[in-house]
User: Fold these one by one.
Assistant:
Number 1:
Amino acid sequence: MQYRQHRGTSTELEFHFHTGVEFSAPVSGHTFALHCLPVEDDAKKLQSYTVRIEPAAEYGLHRDGFGGWLVCGSCREPHTGFCCDSHGIVRVDGRAQEAVAAVLRYLSRVGLLRYNCHSGYLSSVVQESEMANVLTPAGGIFRRFVEPGQEVEYGQKLGVILDPFTAEVEAEILCPTSGVVFFALKKPLTTEHEVAFKVIRRLFVNRS
């Protein structure tokens, strides 16, 4: 599959599809129904396509129950092999480009196609029980030293609380565990026992 930008507001995808089967003995009257063309919807439209069937066969296009294209036909003459190749262009609306890019990244990652792009990130689900809440020990002016996504260690200084009248350090906020900062408070003024940070624990033991 090839990918290219078109006029800045939409994307054109060039697709190639191939499937085939070999028979142990000659067959005739072979019928087929193939999904070898992309599904069309409000976000993507089929611009052009070609379908090649071997051996030569009569075929037609039909819609399935989900609105997708079916290539249906039959090979009447005896044959020991069958293959179908399709090729064409789909235009994708700009609103769907992000989703398309995500699918292409995944297909590239698993080796199903060659697509030169940012490799993306592997996502994971984090439960609330795997995070440690770091509370402010006092109220005052909040100053943080770490950002979300930053790795931290046990006992590391994450921030401080300053006295609003003297600007002196009233309390230090220390990290209770090693891990990755998931959330960091942004507002400059805070009250006591407010959640200043959430840290995803590096090592979590499920005791349930």
Number 2:
Amino acid sequence: MIALVCSQPEEGQERWTLQLLADKLVQLQIVESISRETVRQVLEHNELKPWLNKQWCIPPKSNAEFVCQMEEVLSVYIRPYDERRPQVCLDEMVDFARFIRDLVDVYYPMAEKLVLVMDNLNTHTLAALYEVFAPAQARRLIEKLELHYTPKHGSWLNMAEIEFSVLTRQCLDRRIGSRTELEREVAAWQAKRNEQAVGINWRFTTTDARIKLKHLYPSIAD
């Protein structure tokens, strides 16, 4: 295991993760089965932590706008799945208007409404649709949307940001020599990610926020 973790990770991966190591050990028939926790304990005993990457973001204190938007997004995440109103998280993109058209007409044509969670950027506005499409087309698309914006300093509330963070840690946090190599590495990572059907088990709720992030809520005088 120590030799494996010190070797080059698989194509599409920037570093070894606990799950990748566990899967590889089984694939190489070194063990019949092994848990991520066992891998972690062995590596920690040898002071090896290839998966570790420290990041943090400090949100503002006592900010009513922040907590208002935060609770709005959290209220969306606890909704039960409804195929008529699928939830989609978006990050920055080159062509916001045309991507929205594809979501509505190609990916979710049967949906009554698309519930979108996105960062509050000046490029993520409904006005962008009028800059690209005829008024009737723009209005038709807008009528299919329900928008929710994350607060400033709150990109961690966007599940799309979480997925891109995983992509960065596992695949992109290294030197990649060309665009062709970049596309190949990302495609390999994406294929493996989709094959594993990896999801996000979101557990942070409004109740949690009001306790753990109490310092962000304005003090209300009696």
Number 3:
Amino acid sequence: MANCITRHIPNAVTCCNLFSGCIASVMAFNENYTLAISFIILGAVFDFFDGMLARLFKVSGPLGKELDSLADDITFGFAPSAIVFSLFKEVHYPDFLLPVADYMPYTLIVCIPLLAFFKISSFAAIILWYIILSLLTKKERKQ
């Protein structure tokens, strides 16, 4: 009985990671960015502990591997994309980007998880897009 319970503890922690990513996504769409980032950080803590607990209990299985991958995709791929999506709906684009301004958030919600798939940090991609847009809008304001 104890073995049955202990082998599912890492999966339960992984489910907490997945739940944190889902809540972070909801908070991002509700434009509550502080809570969204807080839940992403909480998901990172759960992600650390699920791996540590799996090694501690010497537990491994196909369900845990797939669940961990799904939780990581949601918490570190989709949730940051949702934050960027919500932020890009509020950006004032320069004149030359106005024809594609309506499509920018939708392209980013696809691009950021792809960058996470290729092991490029989602936060680095968000910072890069923010710098590019701030430079573009700064030039537009000066003119």
Number 4:
Amino acid sequence: MLNISLKLDGVAYKGWTEAYISRSIEQMAGAFRLFVADKQDVRIYNGQACQVIFEGEVLVNGHINRTEKTISEENVSLSLIGRDLSGDLVDCSAVINGGGKLYDLTLSEVIQKLTVGFKVPHKVKAGNSLKHDVSAEHNTIFDVIEKCCRKAGVLIMPDGKGGFVVDNVGVKRAGVSLVMGKNILSADLEDNNEDRFSIYHAKSQDYGADTTEAEALSLPQATSYDRDIKRYRPLVFQPEDSYNEEDLNKRAQWESAIRAARAQSMRIEVSGWRQNLDKGALWDVNMLVPVKIPNDDIDSMMLIKAVEFSYNENEGAKTTLSLVHPDSYIKEPIIEKREI
């Protein structure tokens, strides 16, 4: 049986027959689901503080959000679902005193202002050089922070200890390669062109329904091409805060590049939760890892977007890695507001 425990009020409960732990670079909080049959000695309540621990390492530090029980005369089966401490920042509204807006703050300062009252640890390792103006209206705390992170070209992700970390893309590298026939159990590959276009037309925010043809010709615009899309598929869009042709050209090129990068993805399953089966570091998000699948002519460096650790008594311990091209998170061009 897997050496995984749920720590409640200082007591570690083991014997879980199924376990699932997930993390993603697009989610602030890690999550877990544990299941066991005939666990009558556990007293659980929603909102209870907990830690999920694997071989001495904390994987989730937060609260139980949901309990599910099946009760019979013979036993009680129990399923527990929860998230990191940072899960509250995903759910709760951003509250800012004095009008609901913040001006000219660094990313660290924005986070500090928004998380007052929440005991959520965090660390900003990158992206702190830009200044931000933010609005809390109709937004969750995560929404506001994530928007600032996108502008700064950094990622927000679980830190494995209940909080979150802000960092650059691909700052870590896996200690092993993923190779079909060696450590890959299975691989699902997707190449999806539904969101790709042959031509990207970026138009000024000054365009509108009442813009005349003569006015349209004088307004800035830019075009970028995706040469891999052979049939005619145009996309016309109006970026925020784009004012001149140079800005629009950068934004059109970025739109083409980011959609091309995100078209390809993989889900790879490996044995165990560690990079070297039963030893070494755990698999983690935001890692660069070489992937080699000779049968499909794949030999690429990929970025781990999400990790799901799973265990059940029939299949044992496995890790499912969601992989994308590193360019899927290239920084959006910074467009400074100008007088026009």
